[in-house]
Design a protein that fits this description.
mainly alpha
Amino acid sequence: MAFSTTVAHPSTPPVTEKPANSDVLSSLLGALMLSVYAAQKSKKAMRKMRRHLVWSAFKMNMKSMFSKKGHVNNQVLIYILIGIVALILVFYAPILALVIALVALILILAGVI
């Protein structure tokens, strides 16, 4: 009995595995529930819900277009306008476009614009 060994296994908490495709599974389940809900509605109610959804999406799009989050600097607008004018003049009057480009370059380097 001098050479008897005992093995003690460390106790580990049970591991709960999360399914790898839980996002896909949840979206499919949501789509299934939505289709069951839509099947119970009448055509008139579905059209009303669709109009409400389109109107809400349109309002959100308009709010995002006119929000002040992406405020553009005036200097950037001036650069864009100079570029557009130069591009238009390249096709109509190439010499004048070159002169305007040189004047704009001098003004930018001088720090006026």
